[in-house]
Amino acid sequence: MKTTYIIGHRNPDTDSVTSAIALSYLKNKIGMNTEPYVIGEINKETSFVLKYWKVNRPAFLDDVKVQIKDIKYNRDLMINENTSIYDAYTYMVDNNITGLPVVKAKNKFCGYVSLKEIATSLIKGAFDKLNSSYDNIVKTLNGKEVLKFDDVITGTIFAATYSSELFISDVDIDDNTVVIVGDRHHVLEYCITNRAKLIVLVGNQELSHKELTLAKENRVNIIKTPLLSFEVSKKIGLSNYIKTILRAESPTVLNPSDYLTDFYEINNKVKHTNYPIIDNKNTCKGLLRILDINQYEKKDVILVDHNDIKQSVHGLNEANIIEIIDHHALGNLTTTTPVSFRNMSVGSTNTILYFLFKESNVKIPKTIAGIMLSGVLSDTLILKSPTTTEIDITVAKELSLIAGVNYKKYGMEMLKAGSSLEGLSVEEIVFYDYKEFQVGDTGFGIGQILTLNYEQILSRKEEYIDFLNKTRATKGFKLMALFITDIINNGSYVLFSSNAEQIIALSYNLDYIEQGHYLEGVISRKKQIIPNIMDEIENMK
């Protein structure tokens, strides 16, 4: 069953990560095959939550772009290096292809061969050399086994098409010789006595009892074929191993993880028809024909806790969004087909998930209830944020009963674990819980960090302002700001890029604002920070 990716937003917070995990559990219970993923580093608070409830952290997902492995290329088009040239040619014709990956045991890639190499071998090849297996020769010549002592046959080919006396006097026979012969008993006896590597009897020639006995004694390999000498001379070289004519230069190969967009660039340069698919262990996975590139399956994704493409995973425009579950304002994300979109004006995505569990009649286990409760408490600051609704409060109490914890005590323990600034750089603190927004063609970035030790940041505010200024310039934004939220007193200190003094001041009806100003009661980015700044940017246009 195809896997559906459940993804939260960039710079994932606790609500984003836990809602992805909880929703994946629910979807799998009702018959889907899903996996939760994160698209950024997990913060300290979320790490505490996952460790507390003994839940594995989701794997990291870099993007959902279309990859070579998503294309419906042929997984079986390859041939073993010991296959004959003739069989390789027949295989290509039967499959309407012009080239093939060549593999060793366990499908380990060793090269590529095309009809061009086969044609070249027929025109410029060493026609008198044989390097093949006994079975390949039998099959290529439509022959039958008479005597077989060796699996591998190598040697120089001679056709006894002239007088016996001349052949015997001019040709030295040994165990590195392959002889094509018909009803020439003196030649046969000479070749058998001198232990030829292989004798090919044309026209279904039979050996006498004496010749057969002598051949057995000297361990001479013998094959008979209905073909005549001229036909055998033409075809026997086609029984050679395909590995003997592999392309001299390294072929252009693709990895299953390569992106389709990168393939377009490669193909524009080399303009090949076929591309072997080789994984990181040098295992051949099949052959991509240029005709296959439009037959691919997009990745299915479900988005949680966001609906803005700028906050989502890279390559989202190349994926199928099948569902969105969120509690934020509508973003700029568009889809090509209708999707299931569950959006509620509540404080946490996990609050919405609680009702999805109920609607699906799926029992919420203790651990899942624990991480869902964590998401609700984190996003609502233990139900004190202005974003908190009566629905959040009811859901939090229900989840705390299932999880078996006191939500107030557990919530404070969780927030304290996440508010430690120990070991974090200025950049890490600014981007700890950071989101970017757009008003028309004007962009801005807002970081927010919850802490019990706001003095630690304010004492180094010049470093933070310098970083905000440089980041704003690099990104070409209107402003950058960091809100340092005091989770005990329910307010935030604000640091901002030097050009943003007027916007920040007017956003909170102030005539003047200094760096590190305390905004009493301002703790919600969704309701008290982003809307205020967006409105002021609009007013300034």
Largest sheet: 6 strands, parallel
- CATH-defined superfamily of the largest domain: inorganic pyrophosphatase (n-terminal core)
Number of strands: 22
Second-tier CATH architecture of the largest domain: Alpha-Beta Complex
Number of helices: 19
- The overall pLDDT, averaged over residues, is 93
Oligomer: single chain
Q: Which topology of the largest domain does CATH recognise? A: inorganic pyrophosphatase (n-terminal core)
Strand order of the largest sheet: 3-2-1-15-16-17
Distance between the termini: 51 Å
Which percent band covers the strand fraction?
15-25%
Task: Return the structural class.
Answer: alpha/beta
Secondary structure layout plus pairing:
Blueprint: E1 4-7, H1 14-29, E2 34-38, H2 44-52, E3 59-60, E4 79-80, H3 85-94, E5 99-103, E6 109-114, H4 115-124, E7 129-133, H5 134-140, E8 144-147, E9 152-159, H6 164-170, E10 177-181, H7 185-193, E11 198-201, H8 209-218, E12 221-224, H9 229-235, H10 260-270, E13 274-278, E14 284-289, E15 300-304, E16 320-326, E17 340-343, H11 349-360, H12 366-379, H13 390-403, H14 407-419, H15 426-430, E18 434-439, E19 442-451, H16 454-458, H17 461-475, E20 479-486, E21 491-496, H18 501-507, E22 517-520, H19 525-539
Parallel strand pairs: 1-2, 1-15, 2-3, 4-5, 9-10, 10-11, 11-12, 15-16, 16-17, 19-20
Antiparallel strand pairs: 5-6, 7-9, 8-12, 13-14, 18-19, 20-21, 21-22
Helix pairs in contact: 1-11, 1-12, 2-14, 7-8, 11-12, 12-13, 12-14, 18-19
List the main descriptive attributes of the protein structure presented here.
541 residues; alpha/beta; inorganic pyrophosphatase (n-terminal core); Udp-n-acetylmuramoylalanyl-d-glutamate--2,6- Diaminopimelate Ligase, Chain: A, domain 1; 4 domains; six-stranded parallel beta sheet; six-stranded mixed beta sheet; 19 helices
